[in-house]
Design a protein that fits this description.
Blueprint: E1 3-7, H1 10-20, E2 27-29, H2 34-39, E3 47-52, H3 54-62, H4 69-78, H5 83-86, H6 94-103, H7 107-124, E4 131-138, E5 143-147
Parallel strand pairs: 1-2, 1-3, 3-4
Antiparallel strand pairs: 4-5
Helix pairs in contact: 3-7
Length: about 150
């Protein structure tokens, strides 16, 4: 097998499988500690897909298991969000930002966050020649809404 998929939950797996139709054996439910799962990855394959919801994808994009809000602001600024737009979120949680991006149709920002997650995942796999694709999932509707592709 040349491609594997790390999904954070069965709902994320379903969202990915609805679009990509990989075999059931290609999927690994990695849970919430995606960074650790990537670092422990073993095997001979060429591509790794990561299908996860906002919080887990943001953690991977930031590169920390427990990022602070300041880390999130730096990520969003590098993804094209103006500092003035972030003022209402000073006292917010990481999860509070996603609805603003999603319902505000800021898919360009969501795509850049997927690309940052892809870069970090590939950095964790630097010893291996593995291409990573990250897919941001809304688990309630079991759909991929942004991707690093």
């Amino acid at each position: 097998m040349t491609e594997w998929v790390f999904a954070s939950s069965p709902a994320s797996k379903d969202a990915h499988r609805n679009l990509y139709h990989f075999s059931e054996s290609s999927y690994i439910i990695a849970g919430e500690d995606l960074i650790e799962s990537i670092m422990e990855l073993r095997g001979d394959f060429r591509r790794l897909h990561i299908a996860s919801p906002w919080i887990i994808m943001a953690r991977l994009a930031i590169g920390k298991a427990k990022p602070l809000m300041g880390d999130m602001f730096l990520l969003l600024r590098s993804a094209g969000v103006d500092a003035e737009e972030l003022v209402p979120f000073r006292e917010a949680e990481l999860g509070d930002i996603f609805p603003w991006l999603y319902y505000g149709r800021r898919f360009d920002v969501l795509r850049r966050i997927c690309q940052a997650a892809k870069s970090n995942a590939e950095r964790y796999l630097k010893d291996k020649d593995i291409r990573v694709h990250c897919h941001l999932v809304v688990e309630d509707i079991r759909e991929i809404i942004a991707s690093s592709l």
